C-alpha cells in the first residue's frame, strides 16, 4: 500500500502506527483478493526475464505471482511492516524479490529502468494521483507495460469507502479519493499521451468469504487499515460507532447473493510510448 498517515488517535505520547500496518492486511490479500494479483500479472504479460516493479505492493499480492513467472521483481511499498510480511511469504514459496520501502509519488529509480510497472489496488491509495501516475510512467521504458487493478467508485469497495466517508477525518489537503483510479476517464487523463494501446475493462471478483454483512464488517474492522482508522477516530462516540456498524453490515448484506459477493474493479493495461 502507499502513503501512510498517522492513525493513533487514543494516545498521542506513543509512536503513531502507519495506516497500512494496522490490522492484518495480509489476511485480506490472501483470504479475499488473492486472485487479483494473478489476474493482473497475466493481463500485463509479465514473464521470465522482465525487470518489473510492483508499486504499492503491500505484502506482494501481485509481486509474488510476477516473480513466479521468472520475472526480476522489485516490490515497492511505503509501509515496511507489509514488506516484511511479504518477504517472509516469498521465502516460504522459494521466491526471490527485492523488497524496497519507497513512496509511490517519488520513486527512487531511473527513468525507463523497468520493463513493466504494475499495481494491484495499491497505487490508487496515493493521495496525489498525478504524481503517482507520473512516476509509474517515468520508470517504464518505451514499449514497456503498465498494468493496474483499482476498485471502482460504483463497486462494493468503492461503496464501502463512501459509507465510511461521513465518519472519517478530513483527508489531507490535495488528496484525491482512491476509487477515482477505478474510473477509466480519470486514469486515461492521468497517463495522457505517454501511453498507447490502453485496454480497460470492468471485472468482478467473486468473494465467498463472508456469510453475512456483519461477518464482512467485523473482518474489515480487524484487518483493514482504513476501516480500523475510521473506527479509532470514533473511539469517544459510541453512538457513531453503532451507526457505522449498522451501515457497513447493511452494505454487506445488500451485496450478498447465495452466499457470494462480487466486488467490481477496473483492469487497465497500456504500453509506454
UniProtKB/TrEMBL annotation:
<dbReference type="GO" id="GO:0008168">
    <property type="term" value="F:methyltransferase activity"/>
</dbReference>
<dbReference type="GO" id="GO:0032259">
    <property type="term" value="P:methylation"/>
</dbReference>
<keyword id="KW-0808">Transferase</keyword>
<dbReference type="InterPro" id="IPR041698">
    <property type="entry name" value="Methyltransf_25"/>
</dbReference>
<dbReference type="InterPro" id="IPR029063">
    <property type="entry name" value="SAM-dependent_MTases_sf"/>
</dbReference>
<dbReference type="Pfam" id="PF13649">
    <property type="entry name" value="Methyltransf_25"/>
</dbReference>
<protein>
    <submittedName>
        <fullName>SAM-dependent methyltransferase</fullName>
    </submittedName>
</protein>
<feature type="domain" description="Methyltransferase">
    <location>
        <begin position="52"/>
        <end position="144"/>
    </location>
</feature>
<keyword id="KW-0489">Methyltransferase</keyword>
Amino acid at each position: 500500500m502507499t502513503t501512510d498517515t498517522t492513525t493513533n488517535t487514543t494516545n498521542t505520547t506513543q509512536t503513531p502506527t502507519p495506516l497500512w500496518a494496522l490490522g492484518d492486511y495480509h489476511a485480506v490479500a490472501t483470504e479475499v483478493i488473492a486472485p487479483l494479483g494473478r489476474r493482473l500479472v497475466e493481463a500485463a504479460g509479465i514473464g521470465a526475464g522482465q525487470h518489473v516493479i510492483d508499486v504499492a505492493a503491500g505484502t506482494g499480492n501481485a509481486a509474488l505471482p510476477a516473480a513466479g513467472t521468472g520475472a526480476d521483481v522489485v516490490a515497492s511499498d511505503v509501509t515496511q511492516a507489509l514488506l516484511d510480511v511479504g518477504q517472509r511469504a516469498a521465502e516460504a514459496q522459494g521466491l526471490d524479490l527485492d523488497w524496497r520501502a519507497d513512496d509511490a509519488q517519488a520513486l527512487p529509480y531511473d527513468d525507463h529502468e523497468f520493463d513493466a510497472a504494475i499495481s494491484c489496488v495499491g497505487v490508487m491509495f496515493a493521495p496525489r494521483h498525478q504524481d503517482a501516475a507520473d512516476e509509474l510512467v517515468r520508470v517504464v521504458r518505451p514499449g514497456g507495460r503498465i498494468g493496474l487493478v483499482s476498485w471502482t467508485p460504483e463497486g462494493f469497495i468503492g461503496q464501502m469507502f463512501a459509507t465510511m466517508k461521513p465518519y472519517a477525518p478530513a483527508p489531507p489537503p490535495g488528496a484525491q479519493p482512491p476509487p477515482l483510479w477505478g474510473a477509466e476517464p480519470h486514469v486515461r487523463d492521468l497517463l495522457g499521451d505517454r501511453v498507447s494501446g490502453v485496454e480497460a475493462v470492468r471485472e468482478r471478483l467473486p468473494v465467498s468469504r463472508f456469510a453475512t454483512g456483519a461477518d464482512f464488517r467485523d473482518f474489515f474492522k480487524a484487518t483493514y487499515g482504513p476501516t480500523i482508522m475510521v473506527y479509532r477516530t470514533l473511539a469517544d462516540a459510541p453512538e457513531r460507532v453503532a451507526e457505522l456498524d449498522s451501515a457497513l453490515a447493511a452494505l454487506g448484506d445488500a451485496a450478498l447473493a447465495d452466499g457470494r459477493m462480487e466486488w467490481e474493479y477496473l483492469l487497465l493495461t497500456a504500453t509506454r510510448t
